[in-house]
Amino acid sequence: MPLRPLAACFALLMLAACAGDTFAPKSEPSFYRNLARPGAELDAAAAASMISGYRANNGLPAVALDAELTRLAQAQAEIMARRDKLDHGAGKPFVARLRASGYDAKTAAENISAGYHTLAEAFSGWRDSPPHKANMLLKGATRIGIAAVYTPASKYKVYWALILAEPDEKKG
């Protein structure tokens, strides 16, 4: 094939490829969503997927969202936000809150944090902290609840709570 027609074919292929480059995603991935603003909502399913992937990479089972654990995480994030204080014992200590809810767990753990504005930041912070990492890699955990609460008056702006648990199937 002569060089000129080959160059023309190449140019047409490049134009066709460029036309495909005009695609723009409708929004950024939810794990990069800025939660430090009014009305922002955490994508709990994305959190469960992110944590499940991390657990799978470490030979552990996936986790699924649990409505009761999510309610408990939301309550913990809200009380910390109201008090503007990062504290596992805000309200009641974790074990007492879990017991009072009636949630039957063989094992459970809680991660809290403040100041991370995206799910990706909170996840990375927990992953990079040995005690929080150990909680995310809790053996036997199959359920999670997660919450993020925006509080504009705080220097932190966002309070987080994550609860991981292994339900006690024999009891409930």
**Quaternary structure of the protein:** single chain
- Quote the distance from N terminus to C terminus: 75 Å
H-E order = HHEHHEHHEE
Order of strands in the sheet with the most strands?
A: 1-3-4-2
Percent of residues in helices comes to: 40-55%
- Give the mean pLDDT: 88
Tally the beta strands: 4
Total number of helical segments? Answer: 6
Round the Cα radius of gyration to an integer and report it.
22 Å
Structural class: alpha+beta
Q: Overall 3D geometry?
A: globular
**Largest sheet entry:** 4 strands, mixed
Low-confidence stretches: 6-20
Strand fraction equals 15-25%
Characteristic key phrases:
4-stranded mixed β-sheet; globular; alpha+beta; 172 residues; single chain
